[in-house]
Write a structure and sequence with these properties.
It is a single chain. 51% of the residues lie in helices and 0% in strands. It has two domains: 1-56, no CATH class; 57-100. The N and C termini lie far apart (37 Å). By secondary structure, it is mainly alpha-helical. Its EC number is 2.2.1.2.
Length: 100
């Protein structure tokens, strides 16, 4: 697939450690600090090419939006996630700025 999937919304570093090897994760500044302070080696848990599935039938954008909006929780959680990512992005930018 051309779609990139990112792991997100982690609550504990154990969740992140279980996905070690995943190319793209969004990790909050607090959990990054906790991971940096942890001791021991982080071993790969995932490897590319392990599982493949049949490509689903294509749908139009209108069909996608209709299906997505049938699940109020999906709509609300997506909006909440975007807001929280924006807050974390500012925190990360500030942390990086302080390191420079």
């Amino acid at each position: 697939y051309d779609t990139v999937v990112m792991g997100a919304s982690f609550r504990r570093i154990e969740q992140i450690q279980a996905l070690a090897g995943c190319d793209r994760l969004t990790i909050s500044p607090a959990l990054l600090d906790e991971l940096a302070a942890s001791e021991g080696a982080l071993s790969r848990q995932l490897a590319p090419g392990c599982v493949t599935e049949t490509r689903p039938s294509p749908i139009t954008q209108a069909e996608f939006l209709w299906q997505h909006h049938q699940d109020p929780m999906a709509v609300e959680k997506l909006a909440e996630g975007i807001r929280l990512f924006a807050v974390d992005q500012v925190k990360l930018e500030n942390q990086i700025q302080q390191m420079l």
